[in-house]
């Protein structure tokens, strides 16, 4: 087992589309494992599929990781840029007798497989001594007998019979390296000690181990984590709703909540459901990862999100709101809006499950005068109710502007008009927010402050008469 201080993990996405939530969780697990042990977390862009890899997708992946709060060490590595190094290793294997030239054409290989449908391809060139001057691939000379054994930190011991594996191609006939070779060379050269990835890669691992062994390189620790399924138990796809990390950002889940939720998706630490980054880094270990697929549960995600929104300090929450607005293409909060929003947050954040819910509750602090009314709020304002607001304005003109004193003043005005406080709260709510459903009118008044609250009341009382 490598020294804890020398732990190196990596995340290696293919830049062919958005960052899937499953990929984000894989990145998070690698990040947590490395950061919790003082190790390094590296990033490699597996861009060898030149037809599908795009700079836009690479940028989207980096942006997604940055939003999630995962920092990486060193510059991101391009796998395609290292193709000469991959080819060099293949030639080393050829010189050492661990690989051979295969001159079989695609048509010949297809015909062989049609004749032997249940067997891996066996090249007639494996032990050839004649080498014609013709296009050829380089194939791994894999062992034909025995087993390749994977000691997986999650899946346990996995055994694969070698006679079920073919001599995989290392270099194609055009000289380009294959993905299977490139991954091993890159992981070795990057000093990766732990390969933590989805269990859909498990079948590749037996083949990749043979390259490590052929080169005499130490094998990393492999940990293949189960995939994420939807609530119906089927493989996660668009039919389940959001699957891209950018979609979760646009739905208004804070990055801190996503880190907490994704960490618990397939990994556990006792019964702990809610935790911060420091706890996650301290607790995370491969032994806590289960073998069964995890299920994406939006109700549980909302619960985690509400916890983190309530726990965030004002500066972090404002930053999260700005990130949300950016993710949805909305304009950022202005300095004036931010100044009005911050005093309102203590009363609002304990009730919001998502950032858009928080913004909706905080709408009263973000709008400008004159307050625009919806139909129901406008129905609360008539001559009598505006008269009550005028009396309230006079009553609180010189109040100390605490919640208790404002509430007592409102109760006294309501008593003078012979009505309950609710009869005053409705028009007061309309005047302050232009809505019939808002936070407490006294929370709004304390958040808005004396000057803005009185100005909004006067806008309505001037219409009384």
In short:
This protein has 465 residues and is mostly helical. 47% of the residues lie in helices and 11% in strands. It starts with 7 loop residues before the first strand and ends with a helix.
Chain-averaged pLDDT: 94
Largest sheet: 3 strands, parallel
Give the overall silhouette: elongated
Structural class: mainly alpha
Please work out how many helical segments DSSP would assign.
19
From the N-terminal CA to the C-terminal CA, the straight-line distance is: 84 Å
CATH architecture call of the largest domain: 3-Layer(aba) Sandwich
How many separate domains make up the residues?
4
CATH class of the largest domain: Alpha Beta
Share of helix, binned: 40-55%
Q: Which homologous superfamily in CATH is the superfamily of the largest domain?
A: HUPs
Instruction: State the strand order across the main sheet.
Output: 1-2-3
Low-confidence parts, pLDDT < 50 over ≥5 residues?
none
Portion of residues in beta strands equals 5-15%
CATH topology tier name of the largest domain = Rossmann fold
Radius of gyration from the alpha-carbon trace, in angstroms:
31 Å
What is the tally of beta strands?
A: 12
């Amino acid at each position: 087992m490598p020294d804890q201080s020398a732990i190196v993990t990596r995340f290696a996405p293919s830049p062919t589309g958005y960052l899937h939530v499953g990929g984000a969780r894989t990145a998070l697990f690698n990040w947590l494992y490395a950061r919790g042990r003082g190790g390094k977390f590296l990033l490699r862009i597996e861009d060898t599929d030149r037809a599908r890899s795009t700079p836009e997708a690479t940028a989207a992946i980096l942006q997604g990781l940055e939003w999630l709060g995962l920092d990486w060490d060193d510059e991101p590595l391009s796998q395609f840029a290292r193709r000469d190094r991959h080819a060099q290793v293949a030639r080393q294997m050829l010189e050492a007798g661990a690989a051979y030239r295969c001159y079989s054409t695609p048509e010949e290989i297809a015909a062989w497989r049609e004749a032997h449908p249940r067997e891996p391809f066996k090249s007639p060139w494996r032990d050839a001594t004649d080498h014609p001057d013709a296009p050829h691939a380089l194939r791994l000379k894999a062992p034909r007998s025995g087993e390749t054994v994977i000691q997986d930190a999650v899946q346990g011991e996995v055994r694969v019979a070698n006679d079920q594996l073919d001599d995989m191609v290392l270099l194609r006939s055009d000289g380009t390296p294959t993905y299977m070779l490139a991954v091993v060379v890159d992981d070795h050269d990057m000093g990766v000690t732990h390969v933590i990835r989805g269990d859909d890669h498990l079948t590749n691992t037996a083949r990749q181990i043979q390259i490590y062994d052929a080169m005499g390189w130490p094998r990393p620790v492999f940990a293949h984590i189960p995939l994420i399924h939807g609530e119906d138990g089927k493989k996660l796809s668009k039919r389940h709703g959001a699957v891209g990390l950018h979609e979760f950002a646009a739905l208004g889940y804070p990055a801190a909540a996503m880190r907490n939720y994704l960490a618990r998706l397939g990994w556990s630490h006792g019964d702990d459901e809610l935790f911060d980054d420091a706890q996650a880094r301290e607790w995370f270990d491969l032994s806590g990862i289960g073998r069964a697929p995890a299920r994406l549960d939006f109700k549980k995600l909302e619960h985690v999100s509400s916890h983190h929104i309530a726990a965030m300090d004002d500066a972090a929450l404002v930053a999260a709101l700005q990130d949300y607005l950016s993710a949805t293409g909305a304009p950022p909060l202005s300095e004036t809006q931010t100044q009005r929003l911050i005093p309102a947050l203590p009363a609002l954040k304990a009730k919001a499950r998502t950032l858009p819910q928080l913004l909706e509750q905080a709408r009263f602090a973000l709008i400008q005068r004159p307050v625009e009314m919806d139909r129901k709020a406008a129905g609360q304002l008539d001559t009598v109710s505006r008269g009550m607001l005028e009396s309230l304005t006079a009553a609180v003109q010189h109040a100390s502007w605490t919640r208790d004193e404002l509430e007592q003043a409102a109760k006294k005005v309501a008593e003078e008009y012979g009505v309950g406080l609710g009869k005053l709260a409705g028009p007061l709510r309309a005047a302050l927010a232009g809505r019939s459903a808002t936070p407490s009118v006294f929370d709004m008044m304390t958040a808005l402050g004396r000057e803005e609250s009185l100005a909004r009341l006067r806008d309505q009382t001037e219409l009384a008469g």
